[in-house]
Amino acid sequence: MKARVALCVLASLFIAAAAWATSNLNLSKSNFYRLTYSSDLASPAQVKAILAELDKMGPADEAKLKQWLPANFKRFGIAGDRIKRLIVLPRGKELKEIGIILLTRTEDEAAAIEVTVKSSKSNSSE
Hints:
The structure is a single chain. This protein is an alpha+beta fold. The protein has one domain. 48% of the residues lie in helices and 17% in strands. The chain is built from four helices and four strands; from the N terminus they run αββααββα. It has a four-stranded mixed beta sheet, with helices on both faces. A hairpin with a 3-residue loop joins β1 and β2. α1 packs across α4. The longest helix is centred in the N-terminal third of the chain and has 22 residues. The chain is globular and about 60 Å long.
């Protein structure tokens, strides 16, 4: 009985942590890119400016994005040193746009990927 209660408590904590991580991420979308970021990292205006610049470049590969983004964070007022992981997800069956995820906490990676893919699928009629 105690083991069952402990298991339920752990499961509840895991679900709550995943929900917090998911709700703490903002999504912004452009024609070619979908950007997922923590709300305390950048403002919607900053992200909109980044996406506008990326749209001018057109679709880019992962290597180019991983070079361009860190080189330009400061220009857009984003503290690049706070970003612990930069993830680029290619466009494909799961993702309508190229997904870019800026993580300030590496433990949010799974939730951020899930939110990015789910959001792309739910907006596929746009």
